[in-house]
Write a structure and sequence with these properties.
Number of strands: 7
Distance between the termini: 26 Å
Largest sheet: 5 strands, mixed
Strand content: 5-15%
Helix content: 40-55%
Radius of gyration: 19 Å
Number of helices: 12
Strand order of the largest sheet: 2-4-6-5-3
Shape: globular
């Protein structure tokens, strides 16, 4: 059961804003990476293999897939399923904060040859700092997209239920039936498995449609996914921009991760204003942080990265959300459904910011050191 706030602004309807469209893009390249330090988003461990970087993708027939009735896909790899998402990812760091796109290109990237590269490893994202080469594994894209689908479906259904006239005065939203009917448990399970190794896309799960109209359910889902991916990619850009090095002690490595997180968060939110645009950006960051929690649940923590709860705490401090924040309320729906679905001790009748504060405290209890 998930507590419903008394006040809400609608955020779902705003998600049609086409994040994938930007004139500025990272150069897409497929090459063996420089044998230098890899700064990873969730871990600095070198992936098992870099995989085949050849451009041999043939798109599958996945057009027209709707939110309500997922069609069964044929057997395909994560590369087959997500390569179209990889192609639009190159513009997302610029599009998430369009008011700073020129600044990112000219002052941060400094007109240098930054590249975006695919990989066929387990789910992770990283940068080769001396090379200024960002790597997105297909398994990482698949894992994040599956989690974004769970997030979108959860907040969409909670929004629909809360707007139902029959729900007036109801303090709880029960998403158990939705979770089962829409295979959300299977999306989460697949997202978790990809953290340890790449594997074929399950036939029961709907495949991404990167060409979906921006005002469709799939288009809104893609926009939420690309927003979360933008924060991850800006984290990696921060590593390279600050020229972080592995030739430092463990404490300094951890500080470098905080710096990269802060770079991504401040870049996205600093000039976002206080309207619905900021709310969307915060929700996207929450989805990215949820993926961090999921990754940590599967692989555990490491000495070179802060615990997910500490990174969550630092990011939340920069959100600056109001008492009726839709991002806060929808973030509660997601975090409660993913990480605390069974407990029923959440107080009823809280406003959005109160519910989020309660959920943040609960996350401290679940993931605290």
């Amino acid at each position: 059961m998930i507590g419903m706030g008394q006040d809400r602004l609608e955020l779902i309807d705003w998600l049609h804003n086409p994040l994938a469209k930007s004139k500025s893009k990272l150069h897409v390249q497929r090459r063996k990476p420089f044998d230098g330090w890899i700064a990873g988003f969730a871990t600095n461990e070198r992936p098992v293999e870099y995989g085949n970087m050849r451009e041999d993708y043939e798109p599958g027939m996945n057009a027209g897939l709707g939110m309500a009735n997922a069609r069964v896909s044929s057997s395909r790899s994560t590369k087959d399923a997500t390569h179209s998402l990889f192609k639009v990812a190159c513009s997302s760091p610029f599009a998430i904060a369009p008011e700073r796109a020129a600044e990112l290109k000219m002052q941060v990237m400094n007109t240098e040859d930054w590249t975006l590269n695919p990989s066929e490893t387990e789910a992770n994202f990283w940068v080769v700092v001396p090379d200024k080469s960002i790597y997105l594994s297909y398994a990482g894209l698949a894992s994040l997209w599956c989690l974004s689908r769970v997030a979108f479906t959860t907040i969409y259904m909670a929004s629909q239920i809360s707007r139902d006239p029959d729900a007036k005065g109801v303090d709880q939203v029960d998403l158990g039936q939705v979770w089962t009917e829409r295979h959300l448990d299977k999306y989460v399970a697949y997202a978790r498995r990809l953290v340890t190794s790449d594997e074929a896309w399950p036939e029961v799960l709907q495949v991404p449609d990167a060409t979906a109209a921006s005002d469709s359910g799939e288009g809104r889902l893609n926009n939420l996914f690309l927003g979360a991916l933008s924060w991850i990619m800006l984290h990696e850009i921060g590593h390279a921009h600050y020229q972080h090095s592995k030739w430092v002690g463990a404490d300094q490595r951890v500080r470098q991760e905080y710096e990269a997180d802060a770079f991504a968060t401040s870049w996205i939110l600093e000039k976002a204003g206080n309207g619905i645009d900021r709310e969307y950006r915060v929700l996207a960051i929450i989805v990215a942080l949820a993926w961090l929690f999921l990754h940590e649940q599967v692989k555990g923590g490491g000495k070179d990265h802060p615990a997910a709860i500490l990174r969550f705490r630092e990011a939340v401090a920069a959100f600056e959300l109001g008492p009726r924040s839709p991002a806060a309320e929808n973030g509660v729906y997601l975090l409660k459904a993913l990480f605390d679905p069974i407990s029923e001790d959440m107080p009823a009748g809280m406003k959005s910011h109160e519910a989020f504060d309660w959920m943040a405290t609960r996350m401290e209890e679940l993931f605290g050191q």
